[in-house]
Amino acid sequence: MTDLILQIRGAPSLSGIKHLGERRGNLCRDKEPAIATAYDYRRRTKAVHGDDAEKSSEIMMIGASISRWTMSYFAMAVAWLFVVLALMVGGVGFPAADLASPDTLVLVHVVCIGWLSLAMCGALFQFVPVLVAKPLFSENWALPALGLLSAGLASLLAGFLALEGRLPAWLWLLPFGAILLIAGFGLIIVDLGLTVWLRPVGPARFVLVGLASLCATVAFGAVFAFALAGWAGSTGQLMLAGGVPLHAIAGLGGWLTLTAMGVSYRLLSMFMLSPDIDDRKSGATLATGALAIAVAVVGGVLPIGFLAALGVVLSIAAVLGLATVALYGRDVLAIFRARKRRQLELNTRMATLSFASLAGTALLGAALVVTGGFAGHVGAFVFLAVFGWLSGLVLAKLYKIVAFLTWLETYGPVMGRTPTPRVHDLVAERRASKWFVIYYAAVWSGTLMLLIGQPSGFRLAAMAMTAGVIGIIREVIRTRQLADVASPLRLPAGACAPHLLFARN
Amino acid sequence: MTEYIDVDVRPILRAGGEPFSVIMSALERLEPGQGLRLFATFKPVPLFAVMADRGFMHSECALDGGEWEVLFTPAAAKQTDAPAGAPSFGNWPEPAVTLDNRDLDPPEPMVRILAAAEMLAPGETLSALLRREPVFLFPQLEKRGYRWVGGFTPDGATYELTVRAPL
């Protein structure tokens, strides 16, 4: 498949068109007219076997500006990350309590919704327009969505505490929280979905599948919330009894993992000066991943009535999941091999530890299944996936994204007119790297402590994780405050210092 | 009085389709002296230059809901209502500066293009080769009043960008 692209900004002159026509000789093979001004005329021609080329095209605006609320999402996400670290250090929830206990539900939902989903959404509000070279459908929805998600999560957590008996039995808090979360995620899914829908190319397709998985996750979660409040009838109780693994697979596997994979393709090749991965290769990875999720979710819902069959469905999904990780590993390796930049930046070096954690998660899962210990150690498996793979990747990329966006916001308006620092000047990688190392070492030891059943050792590991995260976030805040930029370059005439919690765009 | 043939491409655009072949085939069917009345879901500024190249002047008026009606009048025919905002057709000269930014670490390509653009005399152009579509550069160019034209080569490996300083 070839992707022929032609863009013009500004109404070019008559001779400009001629000039353009000459250029188009090597750009486009057909006789279609060139078009201009803030519209991007993309012609994607697809070779059809034994037939003429089939053509389709779209017209759209070009360019990506700075997302106003991405920093706000990141800040809220980090706040929730500290909550989850405090809970783990304090011994609340798993492993001190049972995996299915309300305390563990608090822990899991703080980390998955509060930390990972908010960080992912914040990144996507900035990154999806870059992927599709098209502005967000509506930037105005981002802040209300953040409010709804935060309120919904708080209500859900209070509901779990009520289940545990730590609060009065206000079980209505669970469905109430679910409704707020549906509203918040709904705004985000529609906003990002409509933005990607018009041009689902390359990594953007991962985002679409991720958003679809998010829909499934939220739907399951809502049914559970209503069932826990006793409002969902016998079907709801049946779903609650058998559907929890499906909820987790759709959320961690479909929404968070597939989206993170898609985003990582572009970020890695961008930061390492590597060509984009072949669409067919990433497409195969995505198709396998999407199939794994679809098998688990669709195949899982059907036999919930006959719980015996669920194991078969989950085994098929697990094999497909392993294949997805293997294909993703192949793609990431190809990006590393084709890179032009030999010296890797800190965020990329640290992302490799996250990839290692993903491989470790896959191997651990397979080993546990083979030895028959999966059910007993599912906590360790999920912990490594959540903190080694997903959180590690998010922290590494956060470090880079905040630096880049802060640099663009502060120095973009004066760039070329006055000397400005490089992005690299906003960070102190040497200082930051030790915090990442502490974090990953702590996550791996924590996994080990869970596997060998040492709750107190796990709490020590959680303390070390907290130290690592404090160090990393302190570096990120310093970056945002331009604290490491030497003073003559720091704020040249015409540049404004950025606000910590939102961007002026 | 110019006679106008109506072409409504709004349904095609709403369906995400490609209106240009329709517009061009309508154009070919025009009798000498006839004009084209185009209905679109956006102001088709890109088309103005193309139509100018084919000898048509344009005047546009906004309809409800962000839609536009544009009259394309053969330049030879006397236009009844002269367009207010017709683009001035000056030359895009050969690039005064040529940059090969393909092997620079991001965001260095953007920094160099903006620095070089600031050095251009009014109306001068620069051309640059890049690895990627410089999506963050476009808003900066726009804010500074620059025009640009760019596209990927057929192999998709190089993005060619030409930037013109405001007059």
Q: Give the CA-CA distance, first to last residue of chain B.
A: 35 Å
Uncertain runs of chain A: 1-61
Name of the CATH architecture of the largest domain in chain B:
2-Layer Sandwich
**What structural class should be given to the helix and strand makeup of chain A?**
mainly alpha
Strand order of the largest sheet of chain B: 1-2-4-3
- What is the number of helical segments of chain A per DSSP (H or I, 4+ residues)? 15
Number of helices of chain B: 5
Give the strand content of chain B: 25-35%
| Poorly predicted residue ranges of chain B | 78-90
Task: Describe, in plain words, how this protein is organized in 3D.
The complex is a heterodimer of chains A (505) and B (167). With 505 residues, chain A is mostly helical. Among the domains of chain A are: 2-60, no CATH class; 347-380 and 390-500, no CATH class. Chain A is 68% helix and 5% strand. Chain A contains 15 helices and three strands. Chain A has helices at 14-27, 70-89, 102-132, 142-164, 173-197, 204-228, 233-242, 244-271, 279-301, 310-337, 346-371, 374-411, 429-451, 455-480, 487-490; strands at 2-9, 39-46, 54-60. Chain B has 167 residues and is α/β, with parallel strands linked by helices. Chain B has two domains: 4-74, 2-Layer Sandwich (Translation Initiation Factor IF3); 97-164, Translation Initiation Factor IF3, CATH 3.30.110.40. In chain B, the strands form two sheets. Chain B has a four-stranded mixed sheet with strand order 1-2-4-3. Chain B starts with a strand and ends with a strand. Chains A and B meet through strand 1, helix 1, strand 2, strand 3 and helix 12 of A and helix 2, helix 3, helix 4, helix 5 and strand 7 of B.
Features of the shown structure:
heterodimer, A: 3-stranded antiparallel β-sheet, 3 strands, 68% helix, disordered N terminus, B: alpha/beta, Translation Initiation Factor IF3, 2 domains, 4-stranded mixed β-sheet, 5 helices
